Amino acid sequence: MFDQEKFSTRLRKLRRDADISQKVLADVIDVSTNQISQMEKGLKTTTLARLCLLCDYFGVSADYLLGRTDEPN
Q: What is the pLDDT along the chain (73 residues), one digit of tens a residue?
């Protein structure tokens, strides 16, 4: 099952660990900086295509980012 809180927390942590700004991540998945902020706050999610981009960019599985497993790969 999808866990919105884990998604937002993990996305924020992955971005910070990669030492990139919300603007850089927004450019990577072609959304606004505001949307990244809302995703990190748990107010919004994203499309399947953009979820794939996030997983590829950070080198993690979709199950990890969605909170379905605690194993990143």
A: 889 999 999 999 999 999 999 999 999 999 999 999 999 999 999 999 999 999 999 999 999 999 999 999 8
Amino acid of residue 45 = T
Closest CA to 22 of 32, 33, 13: 33
Question: Cβ(9)–Cβ(34) under 8 Å?
Answer: no
Cα first-last separation, the chain: 18
Phi and psi dihedrals of 72, rounded to 5?
A: -60, -30
Residue listed under structure tokens 């942590």: 13
Backbone angles phi, psi at 40, to 5 degrees: -70, -25
